Amino acid sequence: MTPRITxxxxxxxxxxxxxxxxxxxxxxxxxxxxxxxxxxRGGPAILAECRRLRASRYPEGLPTGRAVATTAxxxxxxxxxxxxxxxxxxxxxxSELLASCYRESLRVADELGARTVxxxxxxAGVYGWPMDDVARIAVETVRSARTSVEEARFVxxxxxxxxxxxxxxx
Length: 170
Prior knowledge:
By secondary structure, this protein is α/β, with parallel strands linked by helices. It is built from five helices and six strands, in the order E-E-H-H-E-E-H-E-H-E-H. The longest helix has 18 residues, at 95-112.
C-alpha cells in the first residue's frame, strides 16, 4: 500500500510519530539544522546509539542515500531514522541518491513496524538542494513506495517549503 501523505508546517522535533527522520550527516554525530535540533531535543541517548553504530556497522560513516534507526531519546517518537542526503550539484544529477533517502527511510520504518513517519525536507538546508526539486522527488518517491507505513508526514519549517510541497501534492 502507499502511505497517506500529510503536510505540517512546524518543528519536526515537536512531532508525535512512530519514527522521525533525521537529515543527518554521514558522521551520525550531530550537526546543524534538523540534525542538530534532533540531537539537542532528543538528548544523549541518540548520540550514544549513533556512536555505537559508528564503532560497529558504520566506521566510515553512513553512506549517502542510506538510512539507519536509533532510539528517539526524549522525542515523542519510538525511533529516529537517520538518512544522509546528497549535496546539491549543478554538474551531477544526484536525484536518485535523494530519492533513496526516502525509500530507505521507509524500508527501515517497515522493518521497525512504524506506521507514522515524520520527514523533513532532506538536503534542502545546508546541502543546498532547491526546495521545489526536493518536494518533487520526495512526494514522487513516497507516492510510489510500497510500504506498510500508513502516514508519511512532511514537517516543513517555513512557509516556502510548505508551499513547495503543497504544489506537488496538488
